[in-house]
Protein backbone atom coordinates (compact mmCIF):
# COMPACT_ATOMS: atom_id res chain seq x y z
CA UNK A 1 0.00 0.00 0.00
CA UNK A 2 1.12 3.51 -0.72
CA UNK A 3 1.42 5.44 2.51
CA UNK A 4 1.14 8.82 0.79
CA UNK A 5 -2.32 8.47 -0.68
CA UNK A 6 -3.56 5.16 0.68
CA UNK A 7 -4.65 4.29 -2.81
CA UNK A 8 -4.66 0.52 -2.27
CA UNK A 9 -7.92 1.06 -0.46
CA UNK A 10 -10.13 2.46 -3.16
CA UNK A 11 -12.81 3.95 -0.95
CA UNK A 12 -10.62 5.37 1.69
CA UNK A 13 -11.05 9.14 2.02
CA UNK A 14 -8.04 11.07 0.80
CA UNK A 15 -6.56 14.11 2.42
CA UNK A 16 -5.23 15.52 -0.82
CA UNK A 17 -6.18 16.07 -4.41
CA UNK A 18 -4.80 13.91 -7.13
CA UNK A 19 -5.64 13.41 -10.76
CA UNK A 20 -6.09 9.63 -10.92
CA UNK A 21 -9.25 7.58 -10.66
CA UNK A 22 -9.43 4.55 -8.43
CA UNK A 23 -9.91 1.93 -11.06
CA UNK A 24 -6.26 0.91 -11.25
CA UNK A 25 -5.01 -2.57 -10.55
CA UNK A 26 -2.70 -4.33 -8.09
CA UNK A 27 -3.84 -2.72 -4.92
CA UNK A 28 -4.07 0.72 -6.44
CA UNK A 29 -0.53 0.68 -7.82
CA UNK A 30 -0.10 0.89 -11.52
CA UNK A 31 2.24 -1.79 -12.83
CA UNK A 32 4.69 -0.60 -15.43
CA UNK A 33 7.14 -2.77 -17.41
CA UNK A 34 10.62 -1.34 -17.60
CA UNK A 35 13.10 -4.01 -18.71
CA UNK A 36 16.19 -1.86 -18.37
CA UNK A 37 19.57 -3.42 -17.61
CA UNK A 38 21.80 -2.08 -14.87
CA UNK A 39 24.74 -3.01 -17.11
CA UNK A 40 23.44 -1.16 -20.17
CA UNK A 41 25.86 1.73 -19.77
CA UNK A 42 28.90 -0.56 -19.84
CA UNK A 43 27.40 -2.58 -22.68
CA UNK A 44 27.06 0.48 -24.90
CA UNK A 45 30.78 1.18 -24.49
CA UNK A 46 31.61 -2.50 -25.02
CA UNK A 47 29.70 -2.51 -28.31
CA UNK A 48 31.44 0.68 -29.32
CA UNK A 49 34.81 -0.90 -28.49
CA UNK A 50 33.96 -3.97 -30.53
CA UNK A 51 33.29 -1.77 -33.55
CA UNK A 52 36.50 0.16 -32.97
CA UNK A 53 38.56 -3.04 -32.61
CA UNK A 54 36.99 -4.53 -35.74
CA UNK A 55 37.67 -1.34 -37.66
CA UNK A 56 41.33 -1.54 -36.79
CA UNK A 57 41.50 -5.26 -37.46
CA UNK A 58 42.48 -6.11 -33.89
CA UNK A 59 41.85 -9.47 -32.30
CA UNK A 60 41.21 -8.75 -28.62
CA UNK A 61 41.56 -11.15 -25.70
CA UNK A 62 40.56 -10.34 -22.12
CA UNK A 63 42.69 -12.15 -19.49
CA UNK A 64 41.16 -12.68 -16.06
CA UNK A 65 42.48 -14.38 -12.94
CA UNK A 66 43.22 -13.92 -9.28
CA UNK A 67 46.25 -11.78 -8.39
CA UNK A 68 49.56 -13.59 -8.75
CA UNK A 69 48.45 -16.33 -11.13
CA UNK A 70 50.93 -15.27 -13.80
CA UNK A 71 49.01 -13.05 -16.23
CA UNK A 72 51.82 -10.54 -16.73
CA UNK A 73 54.53 -13.19 -17.11
CA UNK A 74 52.43 -15.04 -19.68
CA UNK A 75 51.60 -11.88 -21.64
CA UNK A 76 55.21 -10.67 -21.64
CA UNK A 77 56.28 -14.03 -23.06
CA UNK A 78 53.52 -14.02 -25.70
CA UNK A 79 54.44 -10.47 -26.71
CA UNK A 80 58.04 -11.57 -27.21
CA UNK A 81 56.98 -14.51 -29.36
CA UNK A 82 54.12 -13.07 -31.38
CA UNK A 83 54.18 -10.36 -34.03
CA UNK A 84 52.09 -7.19 -33.86
CA UNK A 85 51.00 -7.39 -30.23
CA UNK A 86 49.97 -4.72 -27.77
CA UNK A 87 48.59 -4.78 -24.25
CA UNK A 88 46.42 -2.81 -21.90
CA UNK A 89 46.85 -3.71 -18.25
CA UNK A 90 44.79 -2.74 -15.23
CA UNK A 91 45.94 -2.44 -11.64
CA UNK A 92 44.81 -0.47 -8.63
CA UNK A 93 48.18 1.26 -8.40
CA UNK A 94 51.62 1.44 -10.06
CA UNK A 95 52.56 1.06 -13.71
CA UNK A 96 54.83 -1.92 -12.95
CA UNK A 97 52.96 -4.28 -15.25
CA UNK A 98 52.95 -1.97 -18.26
CA UNK A 99 56.70 -1.42 -17.80
CA UNK A 100 57.30 -5.19 -17.60
CA UNK A 101 55.21 -5.76 -20.72
CA UNK A 102 56.99 -3.00 -22.66
CA UNK A 103 60.29 -4.82 -22.11
CA UNK A 104 59.00 -7.25 -24.74
CA UNK A 105 59.37 -4.42 -27.26
CA UNK A 106 55.61 -4.15 -27.86
CA UNK A 107 53.47 -1.22 -26.71
CA UNK A 108 51.58 -1.45 -23.44
CA UNK A 109 49.30 1.01 -21.67
CA UNK A 110 48.68 0.98 -17.94
CA UNK A 111 45.18 1.68 -16.63
CA UNK A 112 45.34 2.82 -13.01
CA UNK A 113 41.97 1.97 -11.52
CA UNK A 114 42.66 3.92 -8.31
CA UNK A 115 41.03 1.27 -6.19
CA UNK A 116 38.45 -0.08 -8.60
CA UNK A 117 38.48 -3.87 -8.74
CA UNK A 118 37.85 -4.42 -12.45
CA UNK A 119 38.24 -2.84 -15.87
CA UNK A 120 35.16 -1.47 -17.56
CA UNK A 121 34.59 -0.83 -21.24
CA UNK A 122 34.87 2.94 -20.84
CA UNK A 123 38.34 2.74 -19.23
CA UNK A 124 39.52 0.42 -22.01
CA UNK A 125 38.13 2.75 -24.68
CA UNK A 126 40.35 5.57 -23.41
CA UNK A 127 43.41 3.39 -22.85
CA UNK A 128 43.47 2.11 -26.43
CA UNK A 129 43.52 5.71 -27.69
CA UNK A 130 47.15 5.73 -26.53
CA UNK A 131 48.11 2.78 -28.74
CA UNK A 132 49.40 3.25 -32.28
CA UNK A 133 46.67 3.07 -34.90
CA UNK A 134 48.69 0.83 -37.21
CA UNK A 135 50.80 -2.28 -36.78
CA UNK A 136 48.70 -4.10 -34.18
CA UNK A 137 47.00 -7.42 -34.75
CA UNK A 138 46.60 -8.83 -31.24
CA UNK A 139 45.50 -6.77 -28.27
CA UNK A 140 45.78 -8.40 -24.86
CA UNK A 141 43.78 -6.88 -22.04
CA UNK A 142 45.14 -7.84 -18.64
CA UNK A 143 42.30 -7.29 -16.23
CA UNK A 144 42.69 -6.39 -12.56
CA UNK A 145 43.62 -9.50 -10.59
CA UNK A 146 40.25 -10.51 -9.20
CA UNK A 147 38.07 -13.55 -9.80
CA UNK A 148 34.80 -11.83 -8.94
CA UNK A 149 34.11 -8.39 -10.38
CA UNK A 150 35.73 -8.47 -13.84
CA UNK A 151 33.40 -11.32 -14.81
CA UNK A 152 30.42 -8.99 -15.16
CA UNK A 153 32.05 -6.44 -17.46
CA UNK A 154 32.13 -6.96 -21.19
CA UNK A 155 35.02 -4.89 -22.55
CA UNK A 156 34.20 -5.47 -26.20
CA UNK A 157 36.72 -8.30 -26.42
CA UNK A 158 36.58 -11.11 -28.95
CA UNK A 159 37.31 -13.78 -26.39
CA UNK A 160 37.89 -14.34 -22.72
CA UNK A 161 40.68 -16.34 -21.08
CA UNK A 162 40.78 -17.25 -17.39
CA UNK A 163 44.03 -18.33 -15.74
CA UNK A 164 44.29 -20.80 -12.90
CA UNK A 165 47.78 -21.41 -11.53
CA UNK A 166 48.72 -24.80 -10.12
CA UNK A 167 49.47 -23.20 -6.74
CA UNK A 168 45.95 -21.83 -6.21
CA UNK A 169 44.06 -25.02 -5.41
CA UNK A 170 42.29 -27.29 -7.84
CA UNK A 171 38.84 -26.34 -6.59
CA UNK A 172 39.12 -22.63 -7.48
CA UNK A 173 36.64 -23.01 -10.39
CA UNK A 174 34.11 -24.50 -7.97
CA UNK A 175 34.54 -21.58 -5.58
CA UNK A 176 34.37 -18.86 -8.26
CA UNK A 177 32.11 -20.38 -10.91
CA UNK A 178 30.78 -17.14 -12.44
CA UNK A 179 34.11 -15.95 -13.86
CA UNK A 180 34.75 -19.36 -15.43
CA UNK A 181 31.29 -19.77 -16.94
CA UNK A 182 31.92 -17.89 -20.19
CA UNK A 183 35.64 -18.52 -20.53
CA UNK A 184 36.62 -19.50 -24.07
CA UNK A 185 39.90 -20.86 -22.76
CA UNK A 186 41.30 -21.71 -19.34
CA UNK A 187 45.07 -21.54 -18.96
CA UNK A 188 46.53 -23.69 -16.20
CA UNK A 189 49.66 -21.66 -15.47
CA UNK A 190 52.94 -22.36 -13.65
CA UNK A 191 52.95 -26.05 -14.52
CA UNK A 192 56.68 -26.03 -13.71
CA UNK A 193 55.58 -25.77 -10.04
CA UNK A 194 53.05 -28.62 -10.23
CA UNK A 195 55.10 -31.14 -8.28
CA UNK A 196 56.07 -28.66 -5.56
CA UNK A 197 52.42 -27.65 -5.15
CA UNK A 198 51.12 -31.25 -5.09
CA UNK A 199 48.91 -30.24 -8.00
CA UNK A 200 46.22 -32.82 -8.78
CA UNK A 201 45.77 -32.55 -12.54
CA UNK A 202 42.66 -34.72 -12.86
CA UNK A 203 40.88 -32.94 -10.04
CA UNK A 204 41.66 -29.52 -11.54
CA UNK A 205 40.54 -30.55 -15.01
CA UNK A 206 37.26 -31.92 -13.67
CA UNK A 207 36.61 -28.65 -11.81
CA UNK A 208 37.46 -26.58 -14.90
CA UNK A 209 35.24 -28.64 -17.21
CA UNK A 210 32.33 -28.32 -14.80
CA UNK A 211 32.64 -24.55 -14.33
CA UNK A 212 33.83 -23.57 -17.82
CA UNK A 213 31.76 -25.86 -20.02
CA UNK A 214 32.87 -24.40 -23.36
CA UNK A 215 36.51 -23.64 -22.62
CA UNK A 216 39.56 -25.18 -24.20
CA UNK A 217 42.19 -25.98 -21.56
CA UNK A 218 45.86 -25.07 -21.98
CA UNK A 219 48.31 -26.20 -19.30
CA UNK A 220 51.51 -24.21 -19.70
CA UNK A 221 54.54 -22.68 -18.08
CA UNK A 222 55.52 -19.21 -19.30
CA UNK A 223 58.84 -19.78 -17.52
CA UNK A 224 59.92 -22.98 -19.27
CA UNK A 225 57.84 -22.48 -22.42
CA UNK A 226 56.05 -25.81 -21.99
CA UNK A 227 52.59 -25.67 -23.60
CA UNK A 228 53.01 -22.11 -24.93
CA UNK A 229 53.00 -23.09 -28.60
CA UNK A 230 49.53 -24.59 -28.40
CA UNK A 231 48.09 -21.58 -26.62
CA UNK A 232 49.77 -19.18 -29.04
CA UNK A 233 48.27 -21.10 -31.99
CA UNK A 234 44.84 -20.86 -30.38
CA UNK A 235 45.20 -17.08 -29.92
CA UNK A 236 46.29 -16.68 -33.53
CA UNK A 237 43.41 -18.66 -34.97
CA UNK A 238 40.45 -18.44 -32.55
CA UNK A 239 37.38 -16.58 -33.78
CA UNK A 240 34.80 -14.77 -31.72
CA UNK A 241 34.05 -16.31 -28.35
CA UNK A 242 30.92 -16.41 -26.22
CA UNK A 243 31.05 -12.80 -25.00
CA UNK A 244 31.49 -11.38 -28.50
CA UNK A 245 28.63 -13.48 -29.80
CA UNK A 246 26.41 -12.08 -27.07
CA UNK A 247 26.01 -15.49 -25.48
CA UNK B 1 29.51 -8.05 -7.50
CA UNK B 2 28.79 -4.31 -7.31
CA UNK B 3 25.45 -4.21 -5.65
CA UNK B 4 25.65 -0.56 -4.58
CA UNK B 5 26.57 0.65 -8.08
CA UNK B 6 24.07 -1.67 -9.70
CA UNK B 7 21.32 -0.39 -7.41
CA UNK B 8 22.22 3.18 -8.36
CA UNK B 9 21.73 2.24 -12.02
CA UNK B 10 18.47 0.45 -11.27
CA UNK B 11 17.13 3.43 -9.34
CA UNK B 12 18.17 5.74 -12.18
CA UNK B 13 16.18 3.53 -14.57
CA UNK B 14 13.24 3.61 -12.20
CA UNK B 15 13.45 7.39 -11.89
CA UNK B 16 13.36 7.71 -15.68
CA UNK B 17 10.25 5.54 -15.81
CA UNK B 18 8.43 7.71 -13.28
CA UNK B 19 6.44 10.67 -14.53
CA UNK B 20 5.96 13.87 -12.65
CA UNK B 21 4.07 13.45 -9.42
CA UNK B 22 4.57 9.70 -9.28
CA UNK B 23 6.50 7.60 -6.84
CA UNK B 24 7.48 3.96 -6.79
CA UNK B 25 5.60 1.54 -4.60
CA UNK B 26 7.53 -1.52 -5.68
CA UNK B 27 10.55 -2.37 -7.83
CA UNK B 28 10.99 -5.81 -9.36
CA UNK B 29 14.63 -6.58 -10.15
CA UNK B 30 15.63 -9.73 -12.02
CA UNK B 31 19.04 -11.36 -11.57
CA UNK B 32 20.57 -14.63 -12.72
CA UNK B 33 23.29 -16.76 -11.15
CA UNK B 34 25.66 -15.67 -13.95
CA UNK B 35 25.40 -12.05 -12.81
CA UNK B 36 27.13 -12.90 -9.55
CA UNK B 37 24.79 -10.65 -7.60
CA UNK B 38 24.00 -11.23 -3.95
CA UNK B 39 20.32 -10.56 -3.23
CA UNK B 40 20.98 -9.52 0.37
CA UNK B 41 23.62 -7.02 -0.67
CA UNK B 42 21.24 -5.70 -3.31
CA UNK B 43 18.49 -5.26 -0.70
CA UNK B 44 20.92 -3.52 1.62
CA UNK B 45 21.96 -1.15 -1.16
CA UNK B 46 18.29 -0.46 -1.88
CA UNK B 47 17.56 0.37 1.76
CA UNK B 48 20.53 2.70 1.92
CA UNK B 49 19.86 4.51 -1.35
CA UNK B 50 16.04 4.60 -1.40
CA UNK B 51 15.58 6.00 2.09
CA UNK B 52 16.79 9.48 1.15
CA UNK B 53 14.79 9.76 -2.05
CA UNK B 54 11.11 10.68 -1.74
CA UNK B 55 10.37 8.88 -5.01
CA UNK B 56 11.51 5.58 -3.49
CA UNK B 57 11.22 5.91 0.28
CA UNK B 58 8.98 3.19 1.63
CA UNK B 59 8.95 1.26 -1.64
CA UNK B 60 9.28 -2.48 -1.69
CA UNK B 61 12.04 -4.35 -3.53
CA UNK B 62 11.47 -7.78 -5.03
CA UNK B 63 14.56 -9.61 -6.27
CA UNK B 64 13.60 -12.31 -8.74
CA UNK B 65 16.10 -15.09 -9.36
CA UNK B 66 15.92 -16.07 -12.99
CA UNK B 67 17.55 -19.37 -13.95
CA UNK B 68 20.41 -19.84 -16.41
CA UNK B 69 18.71 -20.83 -19.65
CA UNK B 70 20.37 -23.01 -22.24
CA UNK B 71 19.34 -24.61 -25.49
CA UNK B 72 20.66 -27.98 -26.55
CA UNK B 73 21.65 -28.00 -30.23
CA UNK B 74 21.49 -31.73 -30.88
CA UNK B 75 18.17 -32.41 -29.17
CA UNK B 76 16.66 -28.92 -29.52
CA UNK B 77 15.61 -28.88 -25.91
CA UNK B 78 15.44 -25.73 -23.74
CA UNK B 79 16.62 -26.37 -20.23
CA UNK B 80 17.68 -24.62 -17.05
CA UNK B 81 21.31 -24.90 -15.96
CA UNK B 82 23.07 -24.13 -12.70
CA UNK B 83 26.59 -22.87 -12.00
CA UNK B 84 27.54 -26.46 -11.23
CA UNK B 85 25.75 -28.24 -14.08
CA UNK B 86 25.51 -26.95 -17.64
CA UNK B 87 24.84 -30.20 -19.45
CA UNK B 88 21.57 -31.00 -21.18
CA UNK B 89 19.58 -33.33 -18.92
CA UNK B 90 18.49 -35.39 -21.93
CA UNK B 91 21.72 -36.00 -23.82
CA UNK B 92 24.51 -34.79 -21.51
CA UNK B 93 25.99 -32.34 -23.99
CA UNK B 94 26.52 -28.69 -23.09
CA UNK B 95 24.05 -26.48 -24.94
CA UNK B 96 24.22 -22.86 -26.03
CA UNK B 97 23.51 -19.91 -23.73
CA UNK B 98 19.90 -18.85 -24.15
CA UNK B 99 19.39 -16.57 -21.17
CA UNK B 100 21.21 -13.39 -20.27
CA UNK B 101 23.61 -12.78 -17.44
CA UNK B 102 21.91 -9.55 -16.67
CA UNK B 103 20.73 -7.52 -13.74
CA UNK B 104 17.69 -5.55 -14.80
CA UNK B 105 14.80 -3.52 -13.55
CA UNK B 106 11.97 -5.64 -14.83
CA UNK B 107 8.98 -3.68 -13.58
CA UNK B 108 7.73 -0.95 -11.33
CA UNK B 109 4.54 -0.42 -9.46
CA UNK B 110 3.77 3.23 -9.60
CA UNK B 111 1.73 5.26 -7.22
CA UNK B 112 0.29 8.67 -8.02
CA UNK B 113 0.91 11.09 -5.21
Main attributes of the structure:
heterodimer, A: 247 residues, alpha/beta, 29% helix, disordered N terminus, B: three-stranded mixed β-sheet, elongated
Major β-sheet strand ordering of chain B:
2-1-6
Biggest interface between chains: A-B, 39 and 40 residues
The number of helical segments of chain B is 2
H and E string of chain B: HEHEEEEE
Largest sheet of chain B, in brief, is: 3 strands, mixed
Largest sheet of chain A at a glance?
7 strands, parallel
- Unreliable spans of chain A are 1-16, 22-26
What's the name of the CATH homologous superfamily of chain A?
Answer: P-loop containing nucleotide triphosphate hydrolases
Poorly predicted runs of chain B: none
Q: Mean pLDDT of chain A, nearest integer? A: 90
Tally of discrete structural domains of chain A? 1
Q: In the CATH hierarchy, what is the architecture of chain A at level 2?
A: 3-Layer(aba) Sandwich
